[in-house]
């Protein structure tokens, strides 16, 4: 019996490996010849600020080992189920910030809508937009507003070249609807953008600033890696973004492991972050995920390193990318927070959904859901 199980596993391993490798070879993407000039590129690849030997890219064999043999982490909370996050449906007018405010609405995964209106001029930004699902992955929940109903998008910021963050179909769709759209891509992706017909794109180096009206966007570090095909591992850069509007700073972390870069960002900015958008999902099992993905524990540490006033968790409940169940990252985070006796809903939209700000060491944390919003003023 044991021999039969072993033979079955080896056969399954062989067939899956062949499929994965075949698909990887099929997807080839262009590389910028001048990427070697980037301050972050050396020894044949892009690097993080901290040592990153564990972030050379997960091989198909490592992924298969995790999927077939584990080990799995224990549940983070009791009574976990496959229940999906609630999705609050939104109208197009809900997405536009009122005069004098910055509005932030979570679309699921790492896609966040950020709108700023000042003196009658509105600037709209999308982070890591993905409207459908990456290859071979199921989208668990719908968007809070149909993509056809989106208002004008001025900027798209892309954190890194992984298919759940850089979705070519979504970017081309947004380009078709927004001829003046500016797409900010990490360093090394100019040729990629040209070949994929993404239109106007601006490759980013650390500290680079892009502005429009009342909004300033600065490319910041992250602790991660990149790959779209087989031969381009860490040949495209990665990062995060600080978005400043009307005196408020919103930090979008993209995908990241925990490292000194959070303190580095705080030093670069020189003032507190008003709202940190930090990932907490696809964090299990920790032995496999910890170098590239922070979980609830590290996200709370990051808020202190960033000198953040508040934190809203993203990158959970949308795609089954880790061993964690859809709501597990949020429930894990929520059990670490304290909540006021009288709900604090200031700035949360809608304010009648039962969501209240929590607190951890003086940082306000909102256990929101897809379609929830926050108004900064």
From TrEMBL:
Ranges for domain Metallo-beta-lactamase: 124-316
Presence of keyword Hydrolase: yes
Gene Ontology cellular-component annotations: cytoplasm
Gene3D superfamilies, A to Z: Ribonuclease Z/Hydroxyacylglutathione hydrolase-like
Keywords linked to the UniProt accession: Hydrolase
Domain of life: Bacteria
A GO molecular function held by the record: hydrolase activity
Protein name, as recorded: Zn-dependent hydrolase
């Amino acid at each position: 019996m044991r021999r039969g199980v072993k033979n079955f596993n080896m056969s399954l391993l062989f067939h899956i490996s062949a499929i994965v490798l075949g698909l990887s070879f099929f997807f080839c993407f262009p590389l910028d010849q001048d990427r070697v000039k980037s301050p972050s590129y050396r020894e044949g690849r892009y690097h993080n600020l901290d040592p990153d030997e564990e972030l050379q890219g997960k091989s198909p064999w490592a992924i298969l080992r995790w999927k077939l043999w584990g080990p799995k982490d224990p549940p983070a909370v009791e009574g976990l189920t496959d229940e999906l996050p609630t999705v609050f449906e939104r109208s197009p007018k809900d997405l536009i910030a009122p005069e004098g405010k910055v509005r932030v609405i979570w679309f699921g995964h790492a896609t966040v809508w950020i709108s700023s209106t000042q003196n009658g001029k509105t600037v709209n930004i999308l982070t890591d937009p993905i409207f459908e699902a990456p290859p071979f992955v199921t989208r668990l929940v719908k968007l809070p507003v149909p993509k056809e109903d989106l208002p004008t998008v001025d900027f798209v910021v892309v954190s890194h070249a992984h298919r759940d963050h850089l979705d070519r179909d979504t970017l081309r769709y947004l380009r078709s609807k927004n001829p003046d759209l500016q797409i900010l891509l990490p360093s090394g992706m100019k040729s990629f953008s040209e070949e994929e017909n993404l239109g106007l794109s601006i490759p980013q180096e650390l500290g680079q600033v892009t502005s429009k009206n009342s909004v300033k966007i600065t490319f910041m570090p992250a602790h991660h890696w990149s790959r779209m095909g087989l031969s381009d591992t860490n040949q495209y850069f990665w990062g995060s973004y600080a978005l400043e509007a009307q005196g408020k700073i919103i930090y979008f972390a993209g995908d990241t492991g925990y490292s000194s870069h959070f303190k580095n960002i705080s030093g670069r900015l020189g003032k507190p972050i008003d709202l940190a958008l930090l990932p907490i999902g696809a964090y299990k099992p920790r032995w496999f995920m910890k170098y590239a993905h922070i979980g609830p524990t590290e996200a709370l540490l990051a808020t202190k390193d960033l000198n953040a006033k508040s934190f809203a968790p993203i990158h959970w409940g949308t795609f089954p990318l880790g061993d964690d169940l859809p709501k597990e990252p949020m429930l894990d985070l929520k059990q670490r927070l304290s909540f006021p006796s009288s709900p604090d809903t200031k700035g949360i939209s809608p304010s009648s959904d039962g969501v209240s700000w929590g607190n951890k060491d003086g940082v306000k944390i909102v256990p929101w859901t897809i379609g929830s919003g926050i108004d900064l003023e």
